[in-house]
Amino acid sequence: MTEIIISVGGVGALSTIFLALINPGDEVVVIEPAFDCYAPQIEAAGGVYVGAPLVPPKNAKCRVDSSEFTVDWEELELKITRKTKMLLLNSPCNPGGKVFTKEEIKKIADICIRHNLICLSDEVYEWLVFPPHKHYKIASFPGMWERTITMGSAGKVFGVTGWKIGWTIGPERFINAMQLIQQNTIYAVSTPLQEALAQTIEEVLPDVQTTDRFFRKLSLELAEKRDRFVNALASVGLCPVIPQGGFFMLANISNVGTYCHAHTRDLKQSDFCSTYASQCK
Fold it and tell me: In what residue span(s) does the Aminotransferase class I/classII large domain sit (predicted)?
């Protein structure tokens, strides 16, 4: 087992990856919007965070699908310099909910190969993709296995976030570097919880290709909740971005009246929600 390593959750995997593979001054290009832990963890490893924002749709209607947020391919390549070491891809994306298409993944793979970059593929939401969309693993594309490190999370897959078990799959040279970091930091991951996770995986694997599988039921259940939440937000004048996968949903609040904004502009972030709820009817 030289091409996989267990970590303390997905966040623990990220931290170990950056500490193992990023040297001071190395740049990491991250497609945004992005998980808020990426930047501080990259910087903690001595790296430089470089954001590459998705392009929102022009003249967007109130309900926007996350697929309408697209990559500016020319701008993405302009972000890459001689100091760039890694490109981080998160699909399905947290928090935007975008599931990158096969064509988009292929273009990202081509960029990584052309610029000789490591690709960190954060796939913790790979099973939370809403029909009819599909998840594609960038490591499976030609020329990508040897430069890709893929991470997953038991908490996201099975709804057991408190267990804090994640995993990383990739070439032996990457996994060996991560092992060196973990051996001298966290040392080990809870053995009883690893056993519980192993039994869970063994139980769901036999029906992974069937229509009755656990993962399909979960994605359908979440898709139904997503649709209800979209309608709820729209009913009060907010403009949701409809996610194709994951747990999260963004909403455009720019059309909310200015009365609340005037009273909350100088408040601390921790006071914002309670004040908004009490003043905006």
Answer: 3-256
Question: 104-160, pLDDT tens digit by residue?
Answer: 999 999 999 999 999 999 999 999 999 999 999 999 999 999 999 999 999 998 888
Does residue 46 come out as left (phi exceeding 0), alpha (psi in the -120 to 50 range) or beta? left
Question: For 37-174, where are the E strands, in sequence order?
Answer: 48-53, 64-65, 84-90, 118-122, 148-153, 166-169
pLDDT score at 158 = 87
Q: Mind giving me the DSSP string for 11-30? A: HHHHHHHHHHHPPTT-EEEE
Residue 276 reports pLDDT greater than 80: no
* Closest C-alpha among 149, 144, 134, 142 to residue 101: 134
Domain boundaries, the chain: 4-207
Backbone angles phi, psi at 123, to 5 degrees: -120, 35
Q: Name the helix (H) or strand (E) containing 110.
A: helix 102-114
Rounded Cα gap, residues 167 and 150, in angstroms:
8
Residue 163, φ and ψ in degrees, nearest 5: -70, -30
Cα 256 to Cα 95: distance, rounded to the nearest angstrom: 21
Helix (H) / strand (E) containing 246: none
* 4-207: CATH, from 3.40.640.10, 3.90.1640.10, 3.30.420.40, 3.40.710.10: 3.40.640.10
